[in-house]
């Protein structure tokens, strides 16, 4: 296992002036170092910098949605999954289940074995795609599915009536029906909110990207729990992304340089999960 960094890195490719500003902020807000991050936890430091630092770059077709981000929101969350380093350990799944008190069959992020172009296989973690045009939102008969200004697609389980229309509409199979009573809570009872839903029998659950952690500068459980640094939490507004090792990258440059793609983007859902390939993969059907 690669050792974790104790300090966040200043992303390459920044102008000297911007790099100096980012370094100052990272030194001041290095949460990873001050919190003593372990495998089960993590911290997120996203730093804004002036738009002219990357105004000269032109988005590719697969990143066209970046240019359309509304300026009113301070963040536009996304995820990057680097398939080149995923070994299929499924620690992302288990970390998510532990954090949200999910049963074994509830896999808000599931790792699928996939076939590549040479006949071999690779591993593909698949969370909620946090679509900008989510079909699940349109079909809910009671408005229990919502999308925040920061791009997070959530479920209000107090309003959910369990029609499962959203499950049928989701092309990514990213929603799960709660057939049984949830596991006993391992923490003190808390308010049931879409940002941190409490599982309830007869309702639908899904990945929420640990929405309650993001305002605190913390990594989602799946990102923090990945021992290979496969998962990155990113922000399209600040144009930065970070993984469990504390490795930070300039998001647009990272996606462009590695020919990132989005799963089933031809459907027009504009998913906010980007995949980096590298071994002849095609994001088709699972094995």
Structure in words:
- The chain is α+β, with helices and mostly antiparallel strands.
- It has one domain (37-286): Alpha-Beta Plaits (2-Layer Sandwich), CATH 3.30.70.
- It is built from seven helices and twelve strands.
- It has helices at residues 16-28, 31-35, 91-100, 135-139, 165-169, 221-225, 251-257, and strands at residues 77-82, 110-116, 121-126, 145-147, 153-155, 175-177, 204-206, 231-235, 240-242, 248-250, 273-276, 281-286.
- The strands form four sheets. A five-stranded mixed beta sheet has the order 10-9-8-1-11.
- The longest helix is centred in the N-terminal third of the chain and has 13 residues, at 16-28.
- The two termini are 27 Å apart.
What structural keywords apply?
3-stranded antiparallel β-sheet; 5-stranded mixed β-sheet; alpha+beta; 287 residues; 7 helices
How far apart are the termini? 27 Å
Shape: globular
Strand arrangement across the biggest beta sheet: 10-9-8-1-11
The number of E-state strands comes to: 12
Order of helices and strands: HHEHEEHEEHEEHEEEHEE
Mean pLDDT reading = 79
Largest sheet: 5 strands, mixed
Q: In CATH, what is the class?
A: Alpha Beta
CATH architecture: 2-Layer Sandwich
Number of domains: 1
Q: Strand share of the residues?
A: 15-25%
CATH topology: Alpha-Beta Plaits
Name the structural class.
alpha+beta
Contiguous helical run count: 7
